[in-house]
Amino acid sequence: MLKSKKLAVLTAIAVFATLFMTVLVVKPAFAADQNASGTTVIELVVRPLTIFNYSAVQGQNFIVSINVTALGTINLQGFNISLSYNPAILNCTDVTEGDLFQAGAPQLNSTVDYSRGFIFASANITSAGNTVDNNGSLVMLTFQVKGTGETSLHLYDTFLYDSAGADLHPEVYDGYFNNKINFDITMPLTLFAVTLASLLLNPKLENKLKDVLEEREFRVRDAILLVGMMAVMITIIVVVRELSTILMVLFLFSYSLLLFTFGYMLSKNRWYVGIVAPAIFILLYVFLRDTSAWTYYLSNIYGLVFAVMITLYLAGLFNWKTTAVFGVLLTGMDIVLVLVTKTMVQAASVAVSLNLPVLVSLPLIPVITTGTGILLLSLGLGDFFFAGLLAIQTFKKYGRNVALLSVVGMTISFALFEAYLLTYRIGAFPGTLMIICGWMPVAIAQTLKNWRKPRPIGSEKMVSS
Question: What's the mean pLDDT when you consider all of the chain?
Fold first, then answer.
C-alpha cells in the first residue's frame, strides 16, 4: 500500500514542505481585532505600534500619531485622551492636531507634564450635527530621546464620543519605544534543538526512508528545477489569492501523508496504526484552528514535529553536490523574494491566514511586552529544513564532530542576525541567509583542512619519462 503511494508522497512533501521558506518576522502576539461579524469596531492606536531603533540617540526627534480606525459609522464629535511615557527615556516637545478633525476646525487643547511624563489632549467639533466618520489621526506627538531603554506609550482615560455625547468605547492599543540592544535565546535554541534532533535521528531512520524512496537522489538539474518551481508557485499564490483554499487542502494532504508514512514505517507496516496520527491532526485542525489553543500551542507543536519529519524525509534525496547548489540558489531566491519583491512575505501571510502550521512562533526571552502583547519571533519550516539538510550532509561528508560544529555555527549566526534585527527593527529577513552564514565558515574551513593534508606515500601515480 505504501509503495503504491511513493510518487504522491514524494511530490506532495517535496513541493509543499519547501514551498514556503518563510522569512524571519518579528511581530506582536496579539494583533488588533478584525471585524469578522460586520459590526462597528473602533480602535484607538498609537502609530507606529513599536519603535525599535538603536540609532535613536540623545537629542534625536521622532513623531508618533494617535489614530482612530473604525469599520462602520461612528459619528465621532470629540475626544479626551491621556498618554503616559517614561520621562527618563523620552521628552514630549510638541503636541499638534491630526488630520481627522481639520475639516471641522476644532481647537486642540493640550497639556504636558514633563517631569512625570503625562500628556492630555482634547478636541470637540462645536458645529451642531457636524461629526467625523473617516479614519485618521487625532493627535500628532513629537518626542525627543533623552536616554537609552524602553518605555510604553500608554493610552489611558480615553473618551471618544458621538454627537449625542455617548462613549464610543474604542479598543485601545499602546505604543512602545525601545532603543537598547536586544537579543533572544528562544528561537536560536529551538533551531539548535530541531537541527540536532534531525542530525541524530537521521542515521537511525535513513535506511528505512531510502526503502520508501527506492534509493533515489536529486541531481543538480533537479535541485535547480525545485528552486525554480518554488519561486513560480510562491508568485502564483500571491497573485491568485483565490487559490488559498486549494493551498490549504494540499498542505493538509501533504502533512497527512507525511504523518502516515512515518507512522506506517515505525509500526512495521501496520496501516491501521499509520492512519491514527493524520486523523488526529486533521480533526484538531478542523475543530480548533480558530482557537488560541491551536494558534499558540498546537500549531507550534505540529510545526516542530513536521520540521524534523520533513528534514528526515527529504535529506536522503540530496548529496553534497546537490545540497551546495540547492543552498546557494535557495538563499539567492530567498533574498530576492524577501528583500526585493516582498513576494515571500505576502505568500507567508496567505498561509498563516489559513492557520496552517507553516511557522513556529515563540515568545522572545528576555520577554519584550508591547501595547499589543508579547512579541513573538516566527521562523518558517523551510528554514528548519534548510539547517537540518546542511547538518546532515556535513555529517555524511566530514563526520559527526564537524556536523555538530556546523550546528553550533548556524545557531550562533542566527542569534547574531536576530539580535541585529531586534535592535534595529529590520522586520522581514531571509532566514536562509542567517543560517548559511553560520554553516559556510565551518564547511570551507574543513574543506581547506582536508585539501592541505599531505597525501600518503604511494598514493600519487608515477610518471616515467
Answer: 81
Helix (H) or strand (E) holding 390, with range, is: helix 381-398
Domains defined for the chain, CATH in brackets = 3-28+182-448 (no CATH), 55-178 (2.60.40.680)
**Inter-axis angle of helices 381-398 and 6-17, nearest 10:** 110
Neighbours of 363 (CB within 10 A): 18
Could you tell me the sign of the dihedral formed by the alpha carbons of 132, 134, 139, 140, in that order? Answer: negative
| Average pLDDT, integer, range 327-341 | 87
Q: Which residue's entry shows cell 491514527?
A: 276
Instruction: Name residue, grid cell 458621538.
Output: 162
How many C-beta atoms surround the C-beta of residue 416 within 10 A? 15
Q: Which residues contact 297 (CB under 8 A, 6 or more apart)?
A: none
Residue partners of 368: CB distance under 8 A and separation at least 6: 150, 178, 182, 374, 375, 422
Fill in the amino acid letter for 365. I
Q: Is the pLDDT assigned to residue 316 strictly greater than 70?
A: yes
Q: What is the DSSP string of 333-359?
A: HHHIIIIIS-HHHHHHHHHHHTT-S-E
Q: Is residue 96 predicted with pLDDT exceeding 80? A: yes
Q: Establish whether the linkage from the previous residue to 48 is cis, with ω within 30° of 0.
A: yes
Task: Compute the average pLDDT of residues 206-226.
Answer: 72
Q: What is the DSSP letter of 269?
A: S
Say what the pLDDT of residue 9 is: 45
Cα 364 from chain centroid (whole Å):
12
pTM for the full predicted model: 0.80
The H or E element containing residue 43 is: strand 41-47
Cα-flanking dihedrals φ and ψ of residue 138, to 5°? -90, -45
Check if the beta carbon of residue 94 is closer than 8 Å to that of residue 130: no
Q: How far apart are CA 21 and CA 302, in angstroms?
A: 17
pLDDT (tens digit per residue) in 410-443: 999 999 999 988 888 767 788 899 999 999 999 9
Q: Which residues of 344-360 are buried (b: 16+ CB within 10 A; e: fewer)?
A: bbbbbebbbeebbbbbb
Q: How far apart (Å, rounded) are the C-alpha atoms in residues 10 and 399?
A: 28
CA-closest candidate to residue 31, choices 239, 296, 358: 296
State the DSSP code for 18: S
**Which of 178-187, 211-220, 312-321, 332-341 is predicted with the least confidence, judged by mean pLDDT?**
211-220
Task: Tell me the pLDDT band of 90, cut-offs 50, 70 and 90.
Answer: very high
- Give the contacts of 181 (CB within 8 A, at least 6 positions apart): 54, 419, 423
> By three-state DSSP, how is residue 113 classified?
strand
| Chain centre distance of CA 246 | 22
